[in-house]
Design brief:
Two copies of one chain form a homodimer. Chain A is α/β, with parallel strands linked by helices. Chain A has two domains: 127 residues, Nucleotidyltransferase, domain 5; 168 residues, Nucleotidyltransferase, domain 5. Chain A is built from ten helices and 13 strands. In chain A, α7 packs across α8 and α8 packs across α9. Chains A and B meet through β10 and α8 of A and α8 of B.
Amino acid sequence: MYYIGIDIGGMSVACGITDEKFNIIYKDSVPTEAKKPGEEIVADIIGLVKKVMDKVNAKEADIKSIGIGAPGMLDRKKGVIVRSSNINFRNTEIRKLINEQINVPVYVDNDANCAALGEAVSGSTKAVDNSVMITLGTGVGGGVILNKKIYSGFNGHAGELGHTVIVYDGEPCGCGRKGCWETYASVTALIRQTKKAIEENPDSILAKSVDGEVNGKTAFDAMRNNCPVGTEVVKQYIKYVAVGIVDIINILMPEMIAIGGGISKEGDALIKPLIEEVTINMYKKMAVPTKIVTATLGNDAGIIGAAALGVD
Amino acid sequence: MYYIGIDIGGMSVACGITDEKFNIIYKDSVPTEAKKPGEEIVADIIGLVKKVMDKVNAKEADIKSIGIGAPGMLDRKKGVIVRSSNINFRNTEIRKLINEQINVPVYVDNDANCAALGEAVSGSTKAVDNSVMITLGTGVGGGVILNKKIYSGFNGHAGELGHTVIVYDGEPCGCGRKGCWETYASVTALIRQTKKAIEENPDSILAKSVDGEVNGKTAFDAMRNNCPVGTEVVKQYIKYVAVGIVDIINILMPEMIAIGGGISKEGDALIKPLIEEVTINMYKKMAVPTKIVTATLGNDAGIIGAAALGVD
């Protein structure tokens, strides 16, 4: 039997078919034509699924389930994408639409939750039952895994870890609050912090090294070039990341936390000082009980986690 | 069959015996002689348990379990109170000591967790499976209930909800961090905020109404006497409480949150503006999905929750 996992992103839709151990056997993708009506986007996705099934000669009867990870607000029970910030889904009945053409159980969940489940079933947090994945990207996404299942609260909307206030009355957040963790620990935040430091220190190595756009790597690169300004930006950014990590430990006490998203590619340059900062902040100086690691599956986490939604 | 629940506090130890529906049939208490060696405190507790059992003519064979809620750090598996800030427990083997005299299964858990479980089995959150209880007291305690069981993470230390930073680099906290929710939303914090307002506004009704010690009621009383200064203190305090409540909703999405502790006695004067403030802060203006109520069991919550530790 196979599982199919679909990861719907703002730029592209990826679809993978996996074996029962969630190894991806084949995958493919199509661009997300985000402005088209939701039903037409789903038609593109169905075409992609059929193509992937054909490629490995899989029939309906060979597929245990189709799982979908999507950004935005979902109705898991009904299999509907209620709305999505960047893609034109509006109460799009994706389960019904797929089932009209492919008669296989369809599950939907949040993309951040799927990435967390993917890491939990075959990535960085595979060894433990209870874990949290934090995605440091355009926003700060989170997924909570308890007993190898996504924890999503009574209504499916738990795990909005990026939307917890760490700076009272701080930077305005897209969610409507001020000072959310996301507004200090996302890549977007790091870019803002980097730009501010450049403006304030026009003669720094950081400022002089910028060739084109500032991105999430700019300050890390300057740090590697021994720029004190870049080093300070990274140091402060990591403090902000650590505050939220310690909060998660104090609330949920997961056995592992995996850090994903673009910035996680910095590897030890991020993780080592992050663990140091977490250590300083532990409750009454207790040892850090939670293992903090970088996610290992990259973009495949979403596909694999979506595939694993169909596990009983 | 009966259950026995013990609530160890800094001032007294309460012990109750309940029926299978966790109605307290009889309860009694002894003062906590907090400075005595832990083993002697346990001897007092054993005496209390025996007295309570005698009172209802219960034999060992009639008791399903003895549950203990204690402040501080516990080893649930071993049945040991590792340490407690205000009581002289140091690796006190309370299960072993009780079992030397009373041969009944003994369970231990954190006092805040027990209060949350008590409310969940027969108090304010009885109607739902997933709930959180927040105790606004000397500190801010929390207990997370998932599927009617205490959620305590892989090592038993989850649910430290008061120790999440809401003010980056804010007031120093006993846990070692700065700006924890507890340092803004506890009764201790409200008293500090009230005293500051009194100092800054010596001619206010608030300042003039103080007769003796400032306590958690002082600002609420001034508000009821139409004092603008007292009203502002309460308003700001409730904003701080709300920040943490919204964070908990965004992370855990419980069906209900119960507010306990001394300040919860304010009832609607606390809960109504709190719900308004939570509403303003909900993710993208969604309706508040979580029902927020005052806890109803008062001090009995700890006894009942401790008793319910023995449920399979």
